[in-house]
Design brief:
single chain; alpha/beta; 3-stranded parallel β-sheet; 4 helices
Length: 94
C-alpha cells in the first residue's frame, strides 16, 4: 500500500478505530514502499489519543528504508516497532 496517495483514507480509518473504542492498534508496514510527511502526521496525530485511552499503537514489519525515516526523526524511542505482525500482536499480550 502506498500511503502517499492514501493518507486521507488512512486518517479516516485510524479515526474510526479510535472513535469505536479500539485502542490497541497494530499498523502493518510490510507492503509500504514510501511514507511521506502526511503519513507520519496521521500516526503522530493519533498516538496520544490512543495512549490517553489506555491503549497503544504498535508499528510492525517496517522495511529498512521506512525504519530509517523513523530513526532519523528519533521516533523509535516513542513507538513499539516490531519485526513482524506476530511480534506486534504479542506485544499486547505481555
Amino acid at each position: 500500500m502506498d500511503w502517499v496517495h492514501n493518507h486521507v483514507s488512512f486518517r479516516e480509518t485510524l479515526t474510526d478505530l479510535v472513535e469505536r473504542g479500539r485502542h490497541k492498534i497494530v499498523i502493518d508496514f510490510s507492503e509500504l514502499t514510501y511514507m511521506g510527511s502526511s503519513g507520519l502526521e496521521v500516526i503522530l496525530s493519533h498516538i496520544q489519543r490512543v495512549r490517553d485511552a489506555g491503549g497503544d499503537m504498535v508499528l510492525a514489519a517496517m522495511s529498512p528504508k521506512i525504519y530509517k525515516v523513523f530513526d532519523l526523526l528519533g521516533l523509535p524511542k516513542f513507538f513499539n516497532i516490531t519485526d513482524s505482525m506476530d511480534d506486534a500482536l504479542s506485544a499486547f499480550h505481555e
